[in-house]
Design goal:
heterodimer; A: about 270 residues; mainly alpha; Four Helix Bundle (Hemerythrin (Met), subunit A); 9 helices; disordered N terminus; B: about 170 residues; alpha+beta; 3 domains; 5 helices; membrane (chain A); transmembrane (chain A); Cyt_c_biogenesis_CcsA/CcmC (chain A); Cyt_c_assembly (chain A)
């Protein structure tokens, strides 16, 4: 038996009209497809998550900007990395999350993944923009230019355009389901850009430097600069998560309010 | 019979394989134009025509930087090396803050007639991946492990979690 789990009125899903999935994996997947359950799970956590994101981010940034030593040759401008590097990580992993939501949407018609993909877009685009602007401000004093068309910078600019394109496409249809399908294809196709961003500095000669932080080998950064960077990165990830979850939560409530209004209008019209 | 979900999954996998191989082929085909700059070795191999503008990148060779003024403008000559070959560069203008001997740079310009020298209109500094405080740099220098004039810093495992004092002590032990 096939159950697509799609509905033009997500409020119906929340109200419990969702079918019982057949397989075990499907049961696990669809446990989290229920927007009502999502709300009950997320609402109590959200204020704590937002507070943690704020505290950790501020700790990381104050540590980095006021207490960590400056780089021996870059001087004070090296502190921009405490914004630039976490923003870049979140921008890329945010797109990876969007691509996973796209896959769940195309293959399993997961209704919550549709909403998640729609709400990740603007937040991810914001972090990408932050990464590009902070990098540009660093580039002017250090490289001697705001911008060059090397492989790393260009591929991150393409990431921004992918986010913007996804945001536009997912909202471009009168029937939201059509928007979800089309945007999911764009989301998956765009994922090919992620390995290009990561490996661009190794595959080609670029002006942008290679990776400083390495998971497998020693990081090419002194410990007193590494720790504030990692704290700042954790803060940025928490902030991304908090913003996306808050947006999903309000989108679900918006959809439910719309479907209730529609239902009332239909009753009134009949 | 294959369920609809499974069929959709296989379609996505097939499209993914097709698309990634297409992009991989494209990137390999455009490899040379995707590189931001040519190294001195590549310049020798390709021999760009005199006057053709391209980017030349490498390390500023230690002991080759000569600065002066010509017609009231700062004027610099140096050699860019990749460890194999070096190309002399002439630049008129203000250098970026990170410019020094042993630093990576990318210059935009063209070769003069007879491949004598590279006349640069722009010099960009290329920063390495290492971030270290001044006292660590001083300690490495004192320990004789690194002179920034002669290229990138030593293996990060030798310094990234040691105190400056420990780095200096290592060289004596």
């Amino acid at each position: 038996m096939e159950r697509t789990g799609t509905s033009d009125y997500p409020g119906q899903i929340a109200a419990g009209s969702i079918g019982v999935p057949q397989s075990k994996a499907g049961a696990w997947l669809h446990r989290f497809a229920n927007p009502g359950r999502f709300q009950r799970l997320i609402q109590p956590i959200l204020p704590w998550l937002a507070a943690a994101a704020f505290v950790v981010t501020v700790t990381g940034l104050v540590w980095g900007f006021a207490f960590a030593p400056a780089d021996w040759q870059q001087g004070i401008a090296s502190r921009i990395m405490y914004v630039h590097v976490p923003a870049a990580w979140v921008a890329m992993n945010g797109y990876a999350a969007l691509a996973i939501c796209s896959l769940l949407s195309i293959v399993w018609r997961h209704p919550l993944a549709d909403i998640a993909a729609k709400e990740i877009g603007p937040v991810g685009a914001g972090f990408t923009l932050l990464c590009l602007i902070s990098g540009s401000l660093w580039g002017r004093p250090e490289w001697g230019t705001y911008w060059v068309w090397d492989a790393r910078l260009t591929s991150v600019l393409i990431l921004l355009f992918l986010y913007l394109g996804h945001m536009a496409l997912i909202r471009a249809f009168d029937n939201p389901q059509h928007g979800y399908r089309a945007a999911a294809i764009l989301g998956l196709v765009g994922a090919i850009n992620l390995p290009i961003i990561v490996f661009s500095v190794y595959w080609w000669n670029t002006l942008h430097q290679g990776n400083t932080i390495s998971i497998t080998g020693p990081s090419k950064i002194y410990v007193t600069m590494l720790y504030p960077l990692l704290v700042s990165a954790i803060g940025f990830y928490l902030a991304f998560l908090a913003m996306v979850l808050a947006r999903i939560s309000s989108a679900i409530m918006e959809n439910r309010a719309r479907s209730l209004l529609l239902a009332r209008a239909e009753r009134g019209g009949a | 019979m294959m369920s609809r979900k499974k069929r959709r999954l296989w379609i996505v996998v097939a499209c993914g394989i097709g698309l990634s191989s297409a992009v991989a082929l494209m990137l390999v085909a455009f490899r040379s134009s995707l590189s931001f700059f040519l190294s001195p070795q590549q310049v020798l191999a390709k021999r760009p025509a005199p006057g053709m503008v391209f980017r030349l990148g490498g390390i500023v060779q230690a002991g080759t930087v000569v600065m002066g003024t010509r017609d009231g403008k700062p004027y610099t000559t140096f050699r860019i090396t990749d460890g194999q070959t070096a190309i002399p560069v002439v630049f008129t203008g203000v250098l970026p803050g990170l410019f020094r001997q042993g630093q990576g740079v990318v210059t935009i310009g063209a070769m003069t007639r007879g491949d004598r020298e590279f006349v640069a209109s722009t010099v960009l500094a290329k920063h390495g991946a290492s971030y270290m405080p001044r006292d660590v740099e001083m300690a490495l220098r004192k320990a004789g492990k690194w002179n920034p004039k002669f290229g990138p810093p030593p293996n990060a495992a030798a310094w990234d979690d040691k105190s400056p004092r420990a780095i200096e002590a290592d060289s004596k032990g």
